[in-house]
Amino acid sequence: MPKRFVVAASEFPDLPRFPDGFELAEAMTVAAQQLHEKTSPHHTLRTAVRLAVHIMPGAEHAGISEIERGNKFRTLAWTDDVVRSAEARHGGREPHAHWDQLWHSPMARVTDSEGDDGWDVLSALGLRSALSLRLRADRRRLTVLTAYARKPGAFDEDAARIGRLFTAHVSIALDSATVREQLTEAMHTRDLIGQATGILMERQGIDAAAAFESLVRASQRENVKLRDLAREIVTAHNSA
Question: Which residue range or ranges hold the ANTAR domain (predicted)?
Answer without folding.
Answer: 173-234
